[in-house]
Amino acid sequence: MNLYSGGGFVPPDTTVAAGTVGTGTSATTMLMEAVNSMGTMYDTSGSAGVNLATTSCTKNSSDSVSDPRVLFDVASGRWFISTTTFAPIGDASWNLLVSASNDPSGNWFCLVIPTSGIINPDHTTGNFPDFPKMGMSSDKVILTGDGYSQIGTNSYKFQGSEFIVLDKNALVSGASQVAGTLFPPNQGDVAIEPAQQINSTTNTLYMAAVNSGLASTSTLDVWTVTGSPATGSVQAQVTALPIGPLSIPPNAQQAGTSVLLDTNDDSLLDAVYRQGSGSLWVSANDACKPPGDSTVRSCLRFIEISIGSTISVAQDFDYGDPGNYYYFPAVRTDGAGDLFVAFSCSSASMYASACGAMQKAGIANQLTNLSVTRAGDSTYTLSPPRWGDYSGASADPSDGSVWLGAEYATGLIPGFEYWGTAITQVSP
User: Which DSSP string do the residues of 259-296 spell out, in sequence order?
Assistant: First the structure.
């Protein structure tokens, strides 16, 4: 997908899900990529199939919608797409599309969850959930966001993080009424990242966040969400864990220009929990000085949280190389506990490119097998030079491989610079 097929918006906010379409011997793996206002299904050869307008589930068709997230739930065999409505503030909402079967070309259920009536900590009414995230367990779907209220024509105030816990059984059945428990702002930290829980048979759901409003933070908060939204018994408990300092990274150099690419902040960007391994992995951008380098770069940060009778940090490390800038990592694990990472990379001698790497289970605190999955072929100097805000990764439910999606800079149309996204299948 590229700037023009993605609706013409910047940045792309790449997100990817792999799922199984059909039944029995006719079942095949399909990939869903949602970018801004468009979603597209691909087969494993890269041929595009069904196109989906992520703007099709809103209060009004003229509403401004952004930040899609996509997931495939193996247990129910359903595709999920979440978005946020950010304008007008009177229509602000989380929006959730759920496929009626594992066939994305069929019917979809739409649920609009208004945030325009939420009472904010400053006693004003209404906000929109920016940077929305989605995660699920066996019985829950959680939507999170950073609540912003409007205080002027083009001015907004951060009210704090918020989330809603929904009854997954009602969602996949297409029920006209879906039970949910709202946790209004301020729930703490910024950009709460709920985990995509792979092979999970537990109703407990995990989320994590850091206070990225600080220039540097040394605490990671983990939410343990229990209870049933169907019975109104949902509870959320927060465990604070010490981590190494996590800091806002410098913007990234790219070849052919002095324009630096925005790397945003040090908020968490992705989370995955695989029940068999008991590990919750989260990723972020970080400022680090790679070994052998004399300059602080934008690096990748990975934290593995051990989930057991207690919750603790098992791994906590940066990944960087001299002269290179790495940013916007997405993470997924396979059944063997191997970690796979999608991200973007660039340097003074390399255009912004789509990249991938992995950590083999048992090899702690490092990544291996760095690969440029799609080399950039142009400078990227759109003003502002927004990049990200995410990459995408998804475990293939059919064979245990992982699909990595990331952004790169391209100029395939002479005289025009724009972004493209590339999806790559990887395995150990």
Answer: PPBP---S-EEEEEEETTTTEEEEEEEEEE--TT-SS-
The Cα–Cα gap between 269 and 209 comes to: 9
CA distance 239 to 243: 13
255 phi, psi to nearest 5 deg: -70, 145
Structure tokens that stand for 102 in this block? 């594992």
How many angstroms separate the CA atoms of 170 and 230, rounded? 9
Q: Is 325 exposed, middle or buried (0-12, 13-18, 19+ CB in 10 A)?
A: buried
Kindly give, in sequence order, each residue whose CB lies less than 8 Å from that of residue 344, ignoring residues fewer than 6 positions away. Answer: 326, 327, 328, 352, 353, 354, 355, 387, 388, 391, 406, 407, 408
For the segment 47-69, what is each residue's pLDDT rounded down to a tens digit? 877 777 777 888 888 888 889 99
| Segment holding 141, helix H or strand E | strand 140-152
CA-to-CA dists, residue 196 to 17, 140, 141, 278, angstroms: 11, 11, 10, 13
User: What digits encode the pLDDT tens for the residues 337-391?
Assistant: 999 999 999 999 999 999 999 999 889 999 999 999 999 999 999 888 999 899 9
What is the distance of C-alpha 314 from the center of its chain? 22
Which of these, 216, 267, 219, 218, lies nearest to 388 by C-alpha position?
A: 267
The three-point CA angle 241-218-136 to 5° equals 50
Quick one: which of 38, 66, 56 has its CA closest to 109?
A: 56
CA–CA distance, 73 with 231 (Å, rounded to integer): 22
Structure pTM? 0.95
Only one residue has tokens 């690096």, namely 299
Name, in order, each residue with C-beta under 8 angstroms of 161's C-beta and a sequence gap of 6 or more.
144, 145, 146, 147, 185, 186, 187, 188, 189, 190, 191, 192, 209
Contact 342, 393 (CB under 8 A): yes
- Give the tokens for residue 347: 């340097």
Run of H or E including 173: helix 168-173
Provide the 10 A C-beta neighbour count for residue 214: 15
Q: Which amino acid is at 282?
A: V
72 sits in which H/E element: strand 64-73
Both tokens assigned to 272? 């995955």
Helix (H, G, I), strand (E, B) or coil at 243: strand
The bridge status of strand 268-274 relative to strand 196-198 is: parallel
- Selection from 314, 286, 287, 270 nearest residue 133 by Cα: 270
